[in-house]
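Hi R.,

As promised, here are both runs. First protein below:
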Amino acid sequence: MKSKLDLPTEEVKNVLRAKINPTVMKVGIKTLKSLKDGRILIEAGTTEEINKLRQTIKEKCGGGARSNLATA
């Protein structure tokens, strides 16, 4: 995930924590890590959980964030 507004990664993490509650969504987040290129890595257990997170981020963060799905 990356901010379209070029916000620092710590600020993006804080916005995510404030707007998204994974416990209510019943999604287990394994990792929330800042990458050197300004992106944030969010790891979840299953593809279904990742899709839930992506949809919620899109709804609650609007056009301020861009997400890419990568599965192992």
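And here is the second one, sequence first, then its structure tokens:
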Amino acid sequence: MKTFMSMLIITICLVSAPLYAQKIGKVDIDHFLTEKKAIIKETVQFTEQENKAFWPLYDEYVQTYAKLLKRRADLEKGLFEGNESISEKRAKTIVDEHFAIESESLKAKLSMLKKMRNVLPEIIVLKFFQLEEKFEAGLLYQFADSQPVVK
């Protein structure tokens, strides 16, 4: 568990460096996902059979997840464009996009859950989703920390 926490802290730091450097919520999504995959491999410690069942599902899931992360990063970046007040119309667009991303993210997770439950032990499913929530919480913290409240 200590190894996981150390790796999670390193991942958060790697993600946060571009955030603070540019102060616009720009995240190197590919780097984040690479680090995340390495931590999953080390933490879950799949059997050979579990490994063969999990990674194709994960790769499929990550295709959707990466697109959602990029949309979220673009949305966060959009909040900083033109530092003046945001119009009611723009505010509505931002809120609608935020919840569309949240909805699609939940759908992707539920789809992954269903597929994993068909081929993996429940303890592996739990471990994966525990890690998934930790990664997401760290990333969302970085987005939130770099974002001022709109005027």
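A quick note on the second one: The chain is about 85% helix and 0% strand. Let me know what you think.

Best,
J.
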